[in-house]
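Fold in tokens:
===
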Amino acid sequence: MLEDGLSLSRTSMQDLGEVALRCMCELLVCLPHFNFRNNILVAVVPRMTSRSLAGKISQLCCETVERLFREDLVGEVSLECVRLVCKLVKSKSYNTRPAVLRSFLHLRLQSVDEPVGSREGGGGGHKKQRERDEALPARKGSQLTRKQRKRLKAERDLDRDLKETEATESREKKTKLQTEVLQLVFAIYFRILKNSRHSPLLQPVLEGLAKFAHLISVDFFSDLMSVLHSLAETGGLTNKECMLCVLTAFEVLSGQGESLNIDPRQFYVQLYGAILQLDTVSLNEDIVLAMECMDKMMRKRRQVSLQRVLGFVKRLSTVSLQLMPGACLAVLSTVRKCMLSYSQCDQLLDSDGVCGGVFRPEVADPEVCHASSALLWEYTILSRHYSPAVKGYATHLLHGAPTQGRHALHPDIAKMTAGDLVSSLTQPLPPFPPPHPANKTAVKNKGYYYHDAGIRDDVIRKAEQEAIKLAKSHNFD
């Protein structure tokens, strides 16, 4: 068209260029074995930082690279693409769009040591064919002579050996390619982590480290933990970045890092403070991230003391009052896990318990805040929540999170994760247990009181007394 002298307006040229780019992106994803694949990558990857058409070009290229990473089973295409992305980030002096580095989250790096399946030329897809070959002499019976059967058996054994050799070579190739990808990705991550701490790329770097921390060599664990510790101490991080630091540290210490002599207390303190920052305007992904950090912490039960667990249970209960219903359910589900894992959490429901010290919610360390002296009065308030789901879950916790009986959760609700519960209110939930009929008497059970008519007067009175005592100790007006 252009050779014939046809002139196009600027808008038409932009539209034509967008269509051409879409064609290249679709060709790259659908036919990654195309012989001009590298040429297309060279054209697509630099446009991941483009600002043309209000960012539509950049979004298209980033989505294409993400799809390419997800669908690449071996890693050869991913390696070429990662090299170009790393080169692009360096050429921009590590000042580029976070979406560029966030595309690394879609790399298939979780299955480096998995056996090669039928889609990669391994032995899994040839099992049925081998069974058919073995049954061939039996079907033919007397049609084959002894010499022919012997020859067929030798051919079958040779074919099986060849397939096993191909599978081994394919597995070794996959491991080698993904090892190179890891080296490139972590080189970028560590460079940004050490030298660009106030860069907008810090958040996707922390997300990547949290996801791939189990693949990092043990030799780098100490340096990584020291960097994460300094990041958390210096401050200046957003609440999400702080929780990502904590999650990365927990990931490192949960695998091969268990052998390291590292005290994670500072990260517990950071998580304890970050949870308090959650409120009604917090994104769902921030709520899920905080609950994921709690799950990682609870898995190391031998290293988490009872006082620390009680402190987190009280902090989560307090925060639940300032969250939207879906986020509140996610927090309550985490509290339920703590109650089921630590039966001593029942003492927080006992209004007659006697413990040394006074609960100090302003203390930054959950280990020394005397949470054992606190009361979970929040659930008496949540038991009158306008949301039936929150009301039912709070009533369940108020009765000690029973697994059976009238106040037990529906099995489908009990299985739901924090991520499921955050978005659960967009669709109907299974029914919660019906509330107790109004009763003016309090029933004592297992050392703590339940009240079915509403908020317990003695719990509220004791909470008010603690608040007044705390205010006087700080000279509040």
